Amino acid sequence: MAEDTDLSEIQVPTAREEWRKYWTLPLAAGLGNVGSVIHIYSLGAFMAPLSAEFGWSRAEISSGITVSNSGTAIIGLLVGLLIDRFGPRRVGIFGIIAMSLAFGAVGLASGSYGNWVFHWALIALAATATQTTVWTSAVTTRFDASRGLAIALTIAVNGAAATLLPIAATLAIEGFGWRQAFFLIAAGWLALSLPMVLLFFRGAAEDYIAEPGSAKVPASEHLPGMEVREALRSAAFYRLAITGCLFAFVAMSMIVHFVPILTDRGLGAVEAASIAGLVGIASIVGRFVTGYLLDRFPAERVALIGISLPMVSALLLLHGQSTFAYSAAAAIAGFSLGAELDVLIYLTSRRFGLKRFGTLFAIVMVAMTIGTATGPVTAGAMFDRFGSYDTYLWLVIPLALIAALSVGTLRPSPRFASVATAVH
Question: The whole model's pTM is what?
Fold first, then answer.
């Protein structure tokens, strides 16, 4: 196991110093991270025109996301290895260009369902190089004292994208048609993200890459942390993966089915959709509050509370009798959703260091993808079987509890040396 550096012998930058020097890095990383969701958040606006032109069902159109997410899960580990070998900057720049081309190319869809699947397979390849692991791999190497808040800012940009992309896509479709809208959305994101990444996206690994004679050595070699084989011998690593899988199962299924859960309880579609909208707002708040807490309290205890919150949402949905109760359930679920990724990134980087962070967190994300893929369909199947969502909501409670206890009962994380000190 990698030895920890004696922190009493080194100068660790303060949070204020980190933000003064690297404040543009999380912003650039956040814009790049939008590439991991641009196809998901904007697709809804394209459903009606695609269905009208090609006669496809909503399920056929939505299957594109299934194709892309499945592909990303399969090849995600490869990108983690590339990050550790070549550094996140090179992978991220390639990913932005590739994703812009792949998403824009969907505007060339021919009407053949096979052609549709092919386009989304290309998106899967490109989106993998823009996944969250790429961007947080650099951010975690620059921020130590304020790592939680820096991670939160990086991921929170996706919350803004969730609000703005459907609006931008709808306006582009109305003004130029759906084919041109794919090109315009891709070009707009490229114009925003690529200059920022080229100018400001540079992690500690890139400092080492610039040194003479470093080409034959992995970019992350001089960063502090465990090797993959060491981490894989740790029970804590598997507990993080289990937490990611179970929480993704719970969170994604609850979010996808939130509106039908409420309409099943007698609310109108518009009222249910309005309440469900609180999830997105609360998730942004959850990210920043969690990031703040992670920098000040033991991460394991923050995780215990944040990841257990879906139990409260489930109980409110089961026993609530008012709009207020359902709104509270939505806000609590959203807050917890905002906490999840921050906690897992933070704990992975703290417990196992940064040397092989790309590979290790890619494995955790594979576990999360399994939960994301199986949760919504399981909730739907349980409704079909029992005629209501009650059985599913009772299932949420033990799954959320297991996820929270799996990570929340870990001993406090070991701390590796400050990256700035370890690299220079």
Answer: 0.79
